Amino acid sequence: MAAPDAFLLASVFGILGNIVAFMVYLAPLPTFYRIFKKKSTEGFQSIPYSVALFSAMLMLYYAFLKTNAFMLITINSVGCIIETSYLVMYMIYAPAKTRIYTAKLLVLFNVGVYGVIILSTYLIPNNFLRIKVVGWISVVFSVCVFAAPLSIMRLVIRTRSVEFMSFPLSFCLTLCAVMWFFYGLLVRDLFIAAPNILGFAFGLAQMIMYLMFKNSKKSMLPEFSLNQIPNVVAVNDIVASDSQLKTEDTTKSSEAEENQSTESMTNDSRAEGAAAAEPNESIV
Question: Residues 167, 243: one domain?
């Protein structure tokens, strides 16, 4: 393939990758609208957004080290802004303990580890070797991000339910991986193409699993509880509370009935005793 054609195709895949990745970044909007509306994080975790911010920051650093990486700079800059906005809103409405934990997490990874990576790689005199080291670090964290849906896939297998798996999101993640794989392939960047092979495989596996279990009956496990899905936990708590209230009401009503029956039996025995005593008194 001629160089101009490869550059044109790389630009097309880069633009499409930016569009799809932007849609993926906007996927948590309903979650944060719910947090804003209820003024509570309701058990949602901040770890996915901290990891996503760290990954975007790392890819942004990698893009600045490279030349002609405008496509990477644009989407990862937007990703940093969006993920930071999510985390700010999360910390506003999170409980004090969760807020402190999130702040420690951000300081440790997004400031500490990220700062160590920048400072240590700047000590490398060779720019080509520096790009290679940062590229491999980016691959490791990208693989960790792509492997995150494994917990949801395991949950689907155990419960035989796709209630907690979003098919549109899985489709967008798969499509995003395809776009960036071909972009990395066309610009001959192994550190962009390689992790997206794994992203495509996981996304495809999620969609196949969704089609396999979409008509299955729900079978919730007794020990099931996930902080990632607080609405389910809340519903279970409400059901448990209602059943507990109903049990207490039933117990109270049964106790009241027993007391009433005991009182009626006592009154009957007293009446019988009084009736038996009256003839004896009249005889005397």
Answer: no
pLDDT, one tens digit per residue, over 36-89 is 999 998 878 888 899 889 999 999 999 999 888 999 999 999 999 999 999 999
Question: Is 56:138 a contact under the CB 8 Å cutoff?
Answer: no
Same domain, 26 and 61: yes
Backbone angles phi, psi at 220, to 5 degrees: -70, 135
Straight-line distance from the first to the last Cα atom of the chain, in angstroms, rounded to the nearest whole number: 130
- Same domain? For 185 and 279 the reply is no
In angstroms, how far is CA 19 from the centroid of its own chain? 22
DSSP state letter for 63: H
Query: Is 270 in the same domain as 207?
Result: no
Global pTM reads 0.70
Structure tokens at 245: 């209230």
Overall domain count for the chain: 2
